[in-house]
Design a protein that fits this description.
Layout: H1 2-31, H2 45-79, H3 82-88, H4 90-96, H5 106-144, E1 163-167, E2 174-179, E3 183-188, H6 192-199, E4 203-208, H7 213-223, E5 229-233, E6 239-241, E7 244-246, E8 259-263, H8 266-269, E9 276-278, H9 290-304, H10 309-315, H11 321-347
Parallel strand pairs: 1-4, 1-8, 4-5, 8-9
Antiparallel strand pairs: 2-3, 6-7
Helix pairs in contact: 4-5, 6-9, 9-11
Region (Disordered): 24-48
GO cellular component, one term: TIM23 mitochondrial import inner membrane translocase complex
Membrane topology: Single-pass membrane protein
């Protein structure tokens, strides 16, 4: 009996001992961090190569599209005006708003919707280009166009008959020279004071330069102490065309038939060549008399006021006006003398 009880106690002790070991093992596993997840499988070299090719294709396609767009916009800007570009892209704008008619089939309506959606992006890009170009041209126009449509005030009613004598500054009235030992120095052309003072009796004299006013004003202040020059126009009053500043006499608020422009580079610096008298550019020659030689012709014009000075200047085209005028004056005097002599013979 005691042997049976002893064996039963031994079995119960063994069972309790195994249960305690199982519970203790479970608690230790719960205190440990969870096991790391299994590593992801590395992509194969073929898949990686396909992904790189797709990315490179997308990248080069974007670069090519941008390059093509910029090149097209540049060519359109060079070859066509803003109005011409708008006219040529009307069809593209219309295609972005294309819709099928009410009687169209469902398939046609879907096809029209797809086509309109595909054309929306190019149409929006064209609109953006036109807006940017319009804004840019307005900004450029502010620098390239004269500051006003009327560069000079109205003439006094009593001076409506007066001609306007427009003079260039550089290489016409003065010459600026630079040397290392003294820097810049400006020289006045021989006879310039006498030229201005004498012709101020017959003309409205203005200077019209493509230089900045900070250069023009100090020169004229010293060159013209008697204020024979009424107005001064500088670079802000010129018209910028093809990288060069031109004098535009249509903006002077004067009758173009009564404008004379005298310059050493007249034909190259003005938009109205029919109003030009080109004299020898002056570059420091102390024996030069070009301005003084021109006084007789200009005085004659100022006194007799031809109906259209452009026709008079056209008759001197290709000739030295100062010399040709003297020859014509001599010929005129000779004819007058002949007429007088002929009249005396008839009286006898």
């Amino acid at each position: 009996m005691y042997a049976i009880i002893a064996r039963s106690r031994l079995r119960i002790s063994s069972l309790i001992s195994r249960t305690n070991r199982r519970l203790s093992s479970t608690a230790i596993l719960q205190d440990q961090p969870p096991p790391p997840p299994p590593p992801l499988p590395e992509p194969s070299s073929a898949a990686a190569g396909a992904e790189n090719k797709s990315w490179n294709f997308l990248k080069y396609s974007l670069v090519a599209s941008l390059t093509g767009g910029v090149a097209t916009a540049g060519y359109a800007t060079y070859a066509y005006s803003l109005d011409e570009v708008e006219e040529k892209t009307k069809a593209l704008h219309a295609s972005a708003n294309y819709t099928a008619g009410d009687n169209a089939s469902g398939f046609d309506k879907v096809q029209a919707l797809i086509y309109s959606s595909a054309m929306t992006v190019p149409a929006k890009l064209i609109e953006l280009y036109l807006d940017l170009r319009r804004m840019t041209e307005e900004q450029v126009r502010g620098f390239s166009e004269p500051t006003s449509d009327k560069l000079l005030p109205d003439l006094h009613p009593l001076e409506q008959h007066v001609f306007t004598l427009v003079l260039d500054v550089s290489e016409t009235l003065v010459y600026s020279d630079w040397k290392r030992e003294r820097g810049w120095r400006t020289f006045k052309r021989p006879g310039v004071e006498a030229f201005l003072e004498h012709l101020a009796q017959f003309f409205e004299i203005i200077v019209y330069s493509d230089q900045q006013n900070m250069y023009v004003d100090p020169i004229i202040d010293r060159l013209d102490p008697k204020q024979c020059i009424r107005y001064r126009l500088s670079r802000g009053a010129t018209k910028y065309v093809g990288g060069k500043h031109y004098r535009d006499f249509s903006m002077l608020n004067r009758d173009p038939s009564r404008i004379i422009y005298v310059s050493g580079n007249a034909l190259e610096s003005s938009l109205q060549k029919e109003n030009c008298i080109e004299i020898k550019p002056w570059k420091g020659d102390v024996e030069d008399t070009s301005l003084l030689d021109l006084i007789p012709f200009l005085e004659y014009v100022g006194k007799h006021r031809p109906a259209d000075i452009r026709a008079v200047l056209a008759s001197y085209q290709g000739r030295d006006i100062a010399k040709e005028f003297i020859e014509r004056s001599k010929e005129h005097q000779r004819r007058m003398q002949e007429q007088k002599q002929h009249g005396r013979l008839w009286r006898r």
